[in-house]
Design brief:
- The chain is an all-beta fold and about 120 residues long.
- It has no helices and eleven strands.
- The strands form two sheets. Strands 2, 4, 5, 6, 9, 10 and 11 form a seven-stranded mixed β-sheet that branches. A four-stranded antiparallel β-sheet has the order 1-3-8-7, with no helix packed on it.
- The radius of gyration is 14 Å and the shape is elongated.
Length: about 120
């Protein structure tokens, strides 16, 4: 099977920075798009940023210019560098990846368990 594990969440003051990491492990032949989603209390889960295997990126308008998504294909890891954090950025952040396992010929979507980001003074 495939597992995604996030790390780097925590408490930060408004205007501060935080870097999230998500490492994929298990039966991995290839990983296509990877991304970060977030969900605040009482709200729907929303896409924050995504990155293709070739490095093309897409961001939610609310985080453009403040967040940067990147990946290390050799480590099967995706990162989210968050700067100039605002209280409205507080949420549980989830990692997502489309993974093709050994012996298969199609991609499946996998999700991490989430990591809490709190922005408060």
């Amino acid at each position: 099977q495939v597992q995604l594990v996030e790390s780097g969440g925590g408490l930060v003051q408004p205007g501060g920075s935080l870097r999230l990491s998500c490492a994929a492990s298990g039966s991995i032949f290839s990983i296509n798009t990877m991304g970060w989603y977030r969900q605040a209390p009482g709200k729907q889960r929303e896409l924050v940023a995504a990155i293709t295997s070739g490095g093309n990126t897409n961001y939610a308008d609310s985080v453009k210019g403040r967040f940067t998504i990147s990946r290390d294909n050799g480590k099967n890891t995706v990162y989210l560098q968050m700067s100039s954090l605002k209280p409205e950025d507080a949420a549980v952040y989830f990692c997502n990846a489309a993974v093709m396992s050994f012996g298969q010929s199609s991609y499946k979507q996998y999700w991490g368990r989430g990591t809490q980001v709190t922005v408060s003074s």
